[in-house]
Write a structure and sequence with these properties.
Rossmann fold; Alpha-Beta Plaits; disordered C terminus; alpha/beta; four-stranded antiparallel β-sheet
Length: about 325
């Protein structure tokens, strides 16, 4: 890149809180977003994700404090050179040309005009830089918002649902962009409702429900702790093995001649089979998906199944 912003990466959110009347929208949230990583921010609709991001940037009044390498957003003289943020779709004046919109932001943060053309190229909008955003599709508007977030070449990115409106090719482009930025040592904090995409994008997760922390840590750890993972077992001694597995608290169902066991690891199943004198011909562990782990953690798994049944064809 021709121009570089000012280094600042570590995000520390401490005891964030916000109430709307009697309702606690965000309740004592604390987490860290580390340099060199993509941290996914997950939660059901209405769980407080957008409010949390606004609190982090000082756009809403509330409890707690967020620092970026020790300084709050309000303490930064030229914030776009430290932190790039996208918190809403099409955050720009509809009649101002796209390039002029970015030039205005650049001037306010003492960013050279040459950077405007760099970010337009990065997000694939060079050919429409002279266009008016009111004619942009939602996906193009999102790309312009991402361009604005990247304008100061910041070491920290905070993006709320940046994939909204992007087609599959655009989502893949965004994933590669964010992974590449993190690989350069930047901190990337991004919310999304596309759980399959988050499973391949994020290194760490912050999962909230009703404004409270539900999980915080590596994606692999979050998924591995889900009780929705199963082990497929093939054995000629099912009459011996099933009671042994149920005795250790497992749930056993049958599927196409195999036993599907939940609530026990492959190691526990092997030990139970050995103790019961049951032969094992195959053990296949099936880990829960991020979607399944998320639905379980947020208490939505039964609601999800119920809504699917309710929406199905009636006899």
């Amino acid at each position: 890149m021709i121009w570089h912003g000012e280094g600042m990466a570590l995000i520390e959110a401490r005891s964030l809180g916000k109430s709307f009347g009697p309702n606690r929208a965000v309740d004592d949230l604390s987490f860290v977003v580390r340099p060199g990583s993509v941290t996914g921010f997950l939660g059901p609709n209405g769980s407080g994700k957008s409010t949390t991001m606004r609190l982090m940037l000082g756009l809403d009044r509330g409890d707690g404090r967020t620092t970026f390498d020790g300084r709050a957003f309000s303490e930064l003289e030229h914030p776009m050179r430290h932190i790039g943020a996208l918190l809403e779709a099409k955050p720009f004046h509809p009649t101002r040309h796209a390039r002029d919109h970015l030039r205005m932001l650049a001037a306010a943060n003492r960013i050279p005009d040459v950077r405007v053309d760099e970010v337009l190229e990065m997000v694939g909008l060079s050919s429409v830089g002279s266009g008016r955003p009111r004619k942009f599709s939602l996906g193009m508007g999102q790309r312009l918002g991402i361009a604005a977030a990247l304008l100061g070449d910041p070491d920290t990115l905070i993006l709320d649902e940046p994939s909204n409106g992007l087609d599959p090719q655009g989502i893949t482009w965004l994933r590669m962009l964010l992974r590449g930025l993190a690989a350069e040592g930047r901190s990337v904090f991004v919310s999304s409702h596309l759980l399959q995409e988050m499973a391949v994008l994020a290194d760490e997760l912050v999962v909230i429900g009703r404004g409270r922390m539900l999980a915080n840590g590596a994606v692999a750890d979050f998924v591995s702790h889900s009780r929705l993972g199963t082990v497929e077992v093939r054995t000629p001694d099912g009459t011996l093995l099933v009671p042994a597995l149920e005795a250790i608290g497992s749930t056993v169902t049958q599927d196409d001649g195999a036993l599907v066991v939940s609530g026990a690891t492959a190691e526990q199943i092997g030990d139970a089979a050995h103790a019961a004198g049951a032969r094992l011909h195959q053990l296949v562990t099936r880990q829960a998906t991020l979607e399944e782990a998320f639905l379980e953690a947020t208490g939505l798994s039964e609601e999800f199944r119920g809504s699917q049944l309710a929406g199905g064809d009636q006899p």
